[in-house]
Each structure stands twice: as C-alpha cells, then as structure tokens.
Specification:
With 198 residues, this protein is of the alpha+beta class. The protein has 2 domains: 1-33; 36-197, no CATH class. It has helices at 6-28, 30-33, 37-52, 89-97, 101-111, 160-197; strands at residues 56-60, 67-74, 78-85, 118-123, 138-142, 145-149.
Length: 198
Amino acid sequence: MPSALRPVYGRSRVNVLIALICVATFTAGTAASQESKSGAIAKELAQALDAAKLEGIAAADPATPGSFVAALYIPGSQLLVVSAKYSVPPLLIDKLNQKDYRGLYMDLHSAGVPGSKIFVMDFGADGLMSHADGQGADSFDEGNKSISFDGEWKKAKMSEADYMKAYTDADDRYAKMLAMLLAKTKEAKGKAGSDLLN
C-alpha cells in the first residue's frame, strides 16, 4: 500500500471503531431508556385516586368473565395491583357494588384461581420500569413465575434480549390492567360528584 494512503486507512479504522463504540453504548443503554407503556396510565391513575380520596380500586374484566383486577394505592409511594379469575364471581361483584375495594383486593390476592393470578408491585406508582430507580425495583409475578425489573438480567440468568422481552410483555399487560382501573376510578369519582349534587 502506498504510504500516502496509510494515514487515510488509519483514520478510516478509527472512525469505524468510534461508530462501533457508539452503537454498543446505545444498545447497552436500551434497557435503561426503554419507554414504559404503563407509566403515563399509572401516573394518571394515582392522580385520579388522590382526587377521589381512594386508597383502593377494583373492576371486573369485561373481556374475561369471572376475572377481576384490583389495586391498593399507597399515596406517592406504591401501587399493588392484582388480577385473577375468581371461582365465585357474584361474591366479588357484591363487594364491587359496595365499593369494598380493599376486601375485593384481599380476596383476589389470597383466593384467585390458581394459575390465573398476576401481581404487580409498582414502586413510585409510575408504571413498570425496566431498571431499578431510587424507590426500588418493580416486579411482575404470574403463576409461579416472578421477575424483578432491577436491570440485572445476568443475575436472573437471562439474556438481555429475553429480559427486555419479558419487560415489554409485562409492561403491556400491566398497562391494560391499569386502564381498567382508571376507567373505574373515573366512574367512581363521577358518581360521588353526582351524589353530592342530589
């Protein structure tokens, strides 16, 4: 190779290396910067619960007869959300009509049909995050499987791709659970407002 071309070739290799480093850095940051579908809905639900002065909410799942979703809310701190089928749906419908959201949550959490239960711990009440923040790592339990979204996929014996797929799937399902609860919270607040006017 002529000596006049060597510096150009050298600079070319350096540019390629810089580009590869940038790509690797971007990829490594993907888990930390993953957008949460459930984030905006969780924040809106927390605001709606605060406005309605509720510490819990529950709803029947319109897409799955006999299934319910319920949440306990610790203001500014945490959302605990459970979804499951229940073997005697009329009992929970009675609690729903009586606005006994805490009771419904407890029944669903302790006596949901085995294998049907999903339980989410949402620290910060700000949606599922793919990595731990200052308040703790969010978690998603389904059946006998549990995953903590602390960003430590190696510790969980998972590849980053599998970890992020599990996160994306969990976040999508959690967003749907929250949407049902948000609709019920708005309904409950609306009814409370109309009761005051009557």
